[in-house]
Hints:
Number of helices: 2
Radius of gyration: 22 Å
Distance between the termini: 60 Å
Strand order of the largest sheet: 1-3-4-6-5
CATH class: Mainly Beta
Strand content: over 45%
Structural class: mainly beta
Number of domains: 1
Low-confidence stretches: 114-138
Amino acid sequence: MASLNRVFLIGNLTRDPEVRYLSSGKAVGDLRLAVSRRYKTATGEERDETCFVSVVVWGRQAETCGQYLAKGSSLFVEGRLNYEEWEKDGQKNNRLRVVADRVQFMGAPKRAEYSDSADSAAGVPARSGAREEAPAEPPPDTGNDDNLPF
């Protein structure tokens, strides 16, 4: 019997990513994604429908999400569905969530800030909330306009 478990989602975060570390030191990130669609009813009325999806992301990718994403960030998630069941205090619980294989940021980072540390000299953003724009450098002047295609 053939099977396929693949999920592709584009949406916006409903809250800041929650990143924690296991005792092994591996990072785990929990994301809450809102995925919306617009459709027309039989009467021609346009409606919006939003689906809220829990996403778990692991390792360096989880750390990167925690560093650069914030509530409202737009992202693309590729992964698989995972159904979990457990019992706590005599009550059975379950959940269906997406285990991300790949998370791609769709817009500008929300929380990147360059600090005065050695990391900023290497171009690595710090973890705090504000964001500074890097000054734009003009292109080098070659002084030869004869080779321009226009």
